[in-house]
Specification:
Pfam family, one: PCMT
Strand content: 25-35%
Organism: Promicromonospora citrea
Number of domains: 1
GO biological process, one term: methylation
CATH superfamily: Vaccinia Virus protein VP39
Subcellular location: Cytoplasm
Keywords: Cytoplasm, Methyltransferase, S-adenosyl-L-methionine, Transferase
Helix content: 25-40%
Number of strands: 9
Length: about 200
């Protein structure tokens, strides 16, 4: 009997093979794409190590057709991985604060041909992107000092958010009655999430 986590793990491994990290790195960093460590992508940001990205995606449990927000999309790699998991019936929106990184990430995602995914520059003074009925999934790839209420409020019913809070990976679930539940899932290091 195959357990549910093993099936999810297979989906994530397929995504990692289908969306090579190398295509989302500056030319000088591409030789190191297969190494399981963070790599600089410029503007003080990094491409997270693949094992960390895989752990976050396992917690997120992205279903086909999901509406997903990717906060701190950087090079666009995580946005493209999420788009692979949602499939064409989904929608993935990556937001990035840095204008140059956002433009580069948008170009990288555009080259994948996954038209249901896009990267845009984050609106000044707005954390995330408020959406009617909220997002099914939210992935945050930068560390917050505390759980941001603005992002929790953007999580739809039955939704899941994975976010590093200081050095702990936190899963936030929006329960059917509207309450939220947060659980901790190990220690990691990320660049800081800057809130206006």
């Amino acid at each position: 009997m195959v357990s549910e986590p093993a099936v999810e793990h297979d989906d994530i491994q397929r995504a990692l093979r289908a969306v090579p990290r190398r295509e989302f790195l500056p030319r000088a960093q591409r030789p190191f794409a297969g190494q399981d460590r963070p790599l600089p992508i410029g503007r003080g940001q990094t491409s997270s190590q693949p094992s960390t990205v895989a752990a976050m995606l396992r917690l997120l449990r992205v279903p086909l057709g999901a509406r997903v927000l990717d906060v701190g999309s950087g090079s666009g790699w995580s946005t493209a991985l999420l788009a692979f998991l949602t499939g064409p019936s989904g929608h993935v929106l990556g937001v990035e604060r840095d204008e140059r990184l956002a433009a580069w990430g948008a170009s990288n995602v555009g080259r994948t041909g996954m038209t249901w995914a896009q990267v845009v520059r984050a609106a000044p003074g707005v954390l995330g992107v408020p959406r009617e009925r909220g997002w099914d999934r939210i992935l945050v790839s930068a560390s917050a000092d505390a759980l941001p209420r603005a992002l929790v409020a953007q999580l739809g019913y039955g939704g899941r958010m994975v976010i590093p809070v200081r050095t702990t990976l936190v899963l936030v679930e929006r329960l059917p009655d509207g309450r939220t539940r947060a659980t901790n899932h190990g220690g990691y290091r990320f660049v800081p999430l800057i809130e206006d």
